[in-house]
Design goal:
Elements: H1 15-32, H2 41-50, H3 62-71, H4 77-81, H5 95-109, H6 114-124, H7 126-135, H8 137-144, H9 150-159, H10 175-182, E1 192-196, H11 199-204, H12 207-219, E2 222-225, H13 235-240, H14 243-266, E3 272-275, H15 278-291, H16 295-302, E4 304-306, H17 307-320, E5 337-341, H18 344-347, H19 354-360, E6 365-369, H20 386-403, E7 407-410, H21 413-423, H22 430-437
Parallel strand pairs: 1-2, 1-3, 3-4, 5-6, 5-7
Length: about 450
């Protein structure tokens, strides 16, 4: 048995070694049960062991072990709440990382049917699908825009994306195209400079978030740059178990961003990479270190911030220096009440509720909802996971409906689609709510 979360360890991809480690961790989780409420993986695990007369995790079959792995959607919340994590306990338990290891081992050893491979390709090759979707946006959006429609049912049967899911529409003009066409250079009095890592969702679909990010940052004297050569962060393929595909994407982004950071340092700046989608920010901060490593991956991780996290850092730094902080001249519409949904992958970054704090500056009264949407990357978009995902999302939906706020905000575009499905409410990114409060018109 090898307790390792290091993909470079010689035993990492040894399935027999993995099986013994799964037994060790499953036994610890069964004895603790603290995480029963986060997803269906833990109740499934407990039911299997409880049904065994000996109450012994060692009697679980490989298929039962794998069922627990398949039901984990990498929300990371069990890690945040676990008392046995590495560095704090001799048990050295990191359940999400173990599930990732298992996915990666099974990706190499388990036979995958044609439909499963098609689903992996449809959800994993985001830059390809994004370029194609944007090129034919009116047609593509007409086909995918109505959940449960005939085209969506066909999509479900062929590539396994759940017909009932609300999918973000493709933008006719990609974010990077909009950014280049602006033709603006950084103002001479800029008080900071950042590189925007837009993510595939913002690049091809939810471009409003990227536009609002740039304009809110510029309103506060922060210049934005968009280093060329960025690709999808790689999370979709990593969560499928494809380590090689993930590392290939990661290396491209690390090279681009590390080069920009060093250039900005050479200009005497304090560089930062800002990310408006939580899953991608988590990947840059954590997974690039783990699966690529080296000084450039460390450099990128150390300089990466969630987009709202960075703004609140600027606000604090300016106030500490005796200034006023961020611009608080909100002349546009501000909702009296706002429900803020805190996505799991943002909470997993352990940076606090910076988006909530940013929204508070506008004067809106915040109700916090921290229940999981059970989308978490692309897991919740798959046909076979839809019922489990919606079961988990019920608490989130009930909390949002109970708050009955004038507006709903959330950082994750995919989780926001889940909110639409469960509640009928249309959330906006916190940066978009702030942009409207500044009276910046929606593009």
């Amino acid at each position: 048995m090898t307790t390792t979360y290091d993909p470079f360890h010689p035993k990492y991809f040894d399935e027999s070694d993995l099986r013994v480690e799964l037994d060790r961790v499953y036994d610890l989780c069964h004895g603790c049960r603290l995480c029963f409420k986060f997803c269906t993986a833990f109740p499934t695990l407990f039911e299997y062991i409880d049904a065994d007369p000996a109450q012994d995790s060692a009697n679980m079959t490989p298929a039962q072990q794998d069922q627990v792995v398949d039901e984990c959607f990498q929300c990371k919340l069990c890690y945040i709440n676990c008392p046995y994590i590495p560095g704090q306990s001799e048990w050295e338990l990191d359940f999400p990382r173990l599930m990732m290891r298992a996915e990666q081992v099974l990706h190499k050893t388990r036979s995958r049917g044609l439909k499963e491979r098609l689903t992996d390709a449809a959800l994993g090759r985001t830059d390809l699908s994004g370029r194609l979707g944007s090129a034919v946006a009116p047609v593509a959006n007409k086909l995918i825009g109505t959940p449960g429609s005939g085209p969506r049912e066909l999509m479900q049967r062929t590539v396994g994306i759940a017909a009932e899911r609300v999918l973000p529409p493709f933008a006719r003009t990609r974010f990077s195209t909009w950014f280049r066409r602006r033709g603006r250079s950084a103002p001479a009095d800029a008080q900071g400079r950042v590189a925007v890592f837009p993510t595939c969702l913002v690049e091809y679909q939810d471009t409003r978030v990227g536009k609002d990010l740039v304009q809110v940052y510029e309103r506060n004297g922060i210049a934005c740059e968009l280093p060329e050569g960025q690709v999808c962060c790689g999370a979709p393929v990593l969560h499928q178990g494809d380590v090689e595909g993930f590392v290939a994407a990661a290396r491209k982004n690390i090279a681009v961003l590390a080069s920009w950071i060093r250039t900005e340092r050479g200009r005497g700046g304090e560089p930062a990479v800002v990310v408006p989608q939580p899953t991608c920010g988590y990947v840059l901060k954590n997974d690039y270190r783990d699966y690529v490593g080296g000084p450039d991956a460390e450099l990128v991780a150390e300089h990466t911030f969630d987009a709202c996290e960075y703004l609140m850092k600027v606000h604090k730094d300016r106030k500490d220096a005796g200034g006023e902080g961020l611009d608080r001249d909100f002349t546009g519409p501000v909702p009296e009440t706002t429900t803020y949904h805190a996505p799991c992958h943002l909470r997993a970054q352990n940076v606090g509720l910076k988006s909530r704090d940013l929204l508070k500056l506008t004067g809106t009264k915040i109700t916090l909802v921290a229940e999981c949407s059970a989308i978490d990357g692309t897991w919740g978009l798959r046909e076979e996971n839809l019922d489990m995902s919606r079961k988990v999302a019920r608490k989130m939906a009930a909390a949002i409906e109970s708050a009955d706020s004038e507006a709903v905000a959330g950082d994750c575009s995919l989780a926001n689609g889940g909110i639409v499905l469960e509640t009928g409410r249309l959330p906006v990114h916190p940066l978009s709510l702030v942009a409207r409060a500044y009276d910046i018109p929606e593009d």
